[in-house]
Each structure stands twice: as C-alpha cells, then as structure tokens.
C-alpha cells in the first residue's frame, strides 16, 4: 500500500480547492437561521459553487448522492440529504459538509452550526467535537502515525464522556475524493502508517453524546445515532508539511494556527 505524495504543483491546487471549501462555509453561515430549510441551504451552496466559484460540487451524483452538500441535523451523524421538507428550528445543530472540485482537486470541510440559541448540552458537544478535531490536527507531523491522530481524538472525547463513531473515518484526498489512507478517529498511538510531507487527508471526527452505535436509514445515505441522541462533526483537509501540518480548509473562525 503506497500513499500518494503531492507535488508542489498539486499542493498549490489543493490550497485553492481548500480555500473554496472554507469560503463556502463562511458564506453559508448567515443563511443558517430558524425557518429555513436544508434544501434552501443546498441551493445556495450549489449556486455559489457553480456560478461564483466556477467549481464542481463533488457530492452531487457521487455514488448516487442526490444533492450538492450534506446537511446533518441533531441526531444525524453524517450524509444527511438536503430537503425542502426539513425546516430548521431554534436550538437545532446542523453539520454542513462541502466538497468543491477545482481543476480536478477536492477540498473537503465541514462545520457544525448552531441554529439560533443552542442548549448547554449542544454547545458543549459541538465545542468538544471541534477540540477533538484540533487534537487530531496537532498530532500531524512527519514520522507521526495515523494512530496518533485517532488516539488523541478518542482520548479527548472519552475524557468528556462522549463516544466516537467508528464506521466513518477521515481519508486521503486530492484528485480522488476518498483515497488512502484511512484516518480513524480512535485507536492506539504508534499504530497505522507513518506520515510523510506531501500527504493530504481529512480529519473529520463524529462525536456522540450517547452511545457510539449508528444506523443507516432506508434512503441508504442518512446515518443517525442508534439511541437518537445528539451528535456533532467537524472536518478539515490537512497537508503534512516538513514541520508539521497545514490546514488547507482554514477559516477565519478557526481557533488554532493554520500551520505548525
Ligand atoms: N464530504 C463527505 C466526507 O467528508 C462525503 C460525502 S459523500 C456524499 O467524506 F456522497 F454523501 F456526499
Ligand atoms: Co471527508
Ligand atoms: Co466532508
């Protein structure tokens, strides 16, 4: 098994695609309000991607996915399908996951937004989940192992009595949407492959208030927590550099340095 190392030219393209993903999440924030629908959020992102960014929304028709973004509300873990019937209400949380393709390269990022005013429980879950992603990111450097990332995430989640979803993981990314290596969000430090400069992959932990088990709905996309308790997710696309990491999908609201 060999993991692709990006050339300097590839990395420049990945920076462009990553910046477009970041820009989409910044753009959509003002539209995440009570009374809107996830179908409307999808239309806004689709139009922005295609007409403003001149990019391609990777999710659309990917393995049959019918929309341009994923919208995962409350107990939906990931891969929620936008719908005009899904009206957001005050206190909901929603993960919006975007993946533009520009010049053949993918940028993959997601953020969990608050709709109106969150409960104390929701605010804590969303914050700890973002911290879990950051703990994973700061573990990234040449010579570190993929298991160091998973172990850091799992430790932080379980310290706060949350559970880590096992069925979905981070992934290598570039010209291919979901490539090797798999980046598990749990595991043991020192295990897995060794990281090298030029690798690009996502870190995208899904963290549950209740038990770790999930189930797939009959639409064959929507993943929900088995116990229907709240879940959150955050995702960045990361480059391994000579000195550590670079966050390719970095936004102005991030609470970590863009590079190490
Ligand atoms: N963006 C998701 C990820 O982080 C994948 C979505 S696949 C889709 O890997 F088909 F549901 F869009
Ligand atoms: Co991803
Ligand atoms: Co994603």
From TrEMBL:
Substrate binds at residues 79, 178. This is Methionine aminopeptidase. It comes from the Bacteria. Removes the N-terminal methionine from nascent proteins. The N-terminal methionine is often cleaved when the second residue in the primary sequence is small and uncharged (Met-Ala-, Cys, Gly, Pro, Ser, Thr, or Val). Requires deformylation of the N(alpha)-formylated initiator methionine before it can be hydrolyzed. Residues 12-242 form the Peptidase M24 domain. Its EC number is 3.4.11.18. The gene is map. Its cofactor is Co(2+); Zn(2+); Mn(2+); Fe(2+).
């Amino acid at each position: 098994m060999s993991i692709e190392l990006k050339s300097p030219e590839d990395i420049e393209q990945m920076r462009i695609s990553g910046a477009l993903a970041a820009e989409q999440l910044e753009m959509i924030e003002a539209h995440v309000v009570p009374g809107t629908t996830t179908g409307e959020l999808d239309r806004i992102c689709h139009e922005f991607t295609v007409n403003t960014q001149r990019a391609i929304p990777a999710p659309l028709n990917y393995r049959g996915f019918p929309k341009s973004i994923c919208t995962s509300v409350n107990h939906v873990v990931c891969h929620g399908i936008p719908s005009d019937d899904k009206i957001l209400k005050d206190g909901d949380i929603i993960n919006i996951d975007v993946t533009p393709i520009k010049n053949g390269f993918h940028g993959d990022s997601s953020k969990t937004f608050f709709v109106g005013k969150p409960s104390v429980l929701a605010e804590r879950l969303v914050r700890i989940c973002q911290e879990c992603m950051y703990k994973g990111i700061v573990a990234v450097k040449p010579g570190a192992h993929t298991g160091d990332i998973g172990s850091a995430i799992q430790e932080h989640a379980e310290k706060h009595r949350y559970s880590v979803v096992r069925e979905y993981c981070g992934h290598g990314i570039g010209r291919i949407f979901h490539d090797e290596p798999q980046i598990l969000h749990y595991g043991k430090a020192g295990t897995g492959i060794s990281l090298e400069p030029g690798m690009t992959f996502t870190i995208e932990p899904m963290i549950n208030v209740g038990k770790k088990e999930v189930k797939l709905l009959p639409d064959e996309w929507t993943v929900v927590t088995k116990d229907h308790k709240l879940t959150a997710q955050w995702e960045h696309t990361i480059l391994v550099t000579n000195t550590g990491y670079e966050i390719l999908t970095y936004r102005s609201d991030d609470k970590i340095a863009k590079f190490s």
